[in-house]
Sequence to fold (447 residues):
Amino acid sequence: MLSDTIAAISTAAGEAAISVIRLTGPRALEIAQKAFQLPAKVVPRFAHLVRACDENGAVVDSGLFLHFKAPASYTGEDCVEFHGHGGVLVTQRVLERVLACGARAAEAGEFTQRAFLNGKMDLTQAEAVMDLIHAQSTLALRAANEQLGGAIGREASAMQQSLIPVLAHVEAYIDFPDEDIAPETGADLLRRIDAVREQARRLLATSEQGRILRHGARTVISGAPNVGKSSLLNLLLGYERAIVSSTAGTTRDTIEEIIQVHGIPLRLVDTAGLRDAGDDIERIGIERTRRELERADLIVEVVDATQPPQAVSRLDLPAQAATRHILVLNKADLGVHAGWSSAEKAVHLSCMTREGMEPLRDAIRAVISRAGVALDHPVAINARHQAAFTRAAERLDAARAALEKNEAPEFVALELRETLQALGEVIGQVDVERVLDVIFSSFCIGK
Fold:
């Protein structure tokens, strides 16, 4: 695959000020010389004003041309870029000319995949490229930049380096079967294994943080009809997304939008009011509300603060949901009924005057922090990392048990080798072709 020269449009579809066409591969400059009118000497990393011409020499576009000589490029290969005018037709015509001159159309993620295969980045950094593009909050952006800088890769590599001497010690005893592992040596090996186990478990603790940062904390706004759920959704979004009406049952289906609060991405879900359904459509909407409550990371229950608590229909939540629940006393501008005085942690809010929005944001931050987002921790692993680190931790547990029971060193060595393989899968240092296609297929064409 690396013998091909590939090309793609690297900017988003549609009209824009400029568009970028990229080529990478051993024939990148040769193909560019056919498709563009280049100067006699192309200076690497210098912007040249050139023209793109069709097969008859007619000018198709003009723009800036840059050459990045291997290995000092994104992919580690010869790369060229043409920055032209951002029209849909003109950009497509230039790409077609480049392909006609000998390049192959790039597959999704193939530029970054080549960067990985050529050693320009490890697998965690390659994944961070898409995390950076998809980041929807400042915390997600920070985590993606840390991963792009190699934070997770360095952790996995350090764990490997710590285990290699342990495996070497164990294999030395395999070579001399008449000798048992000395007690002091065994204790030292256990300490080293424990240190790596602790490091793996610390990284595994960030998996929930990674899920929330990448996909958003599922935040369900629920309550009885006409208490202001849709008004709160619109207020959080900053625009009219949901229909607000005094007619009960206006919201019949769930509505999802993503915002960020204090840097935390929230996947807001406005739900149908919980009550006895008036028709089949409303019944389906209420059933969906109950399902959303079951899988929510955060439940924002909205009630009418002007009504006494005994007259208000409350959510019937299990005890374990208390840590992810916020009670919002809406319509506080009209006066809060004295019966709510015992609800000390409730947020007093007025969707009409916006009073209470900052305390609500602070309460959301506090609940999400308790749910597993360490706001001061820069590393957040994804599901693939979690599976690999979990397997590494399990194999370390088995190695430790075998060592403590003074079992044959071959068993200990086997578990340690499997641990090293699991850690290698995190950064792509072992044969992981089965995961590469899945990872890079989610990339944009031209990235």
Observations:
- The chain has a mean pLDDT of 86.
- The two ends are 16 Å apart (CA to CA).
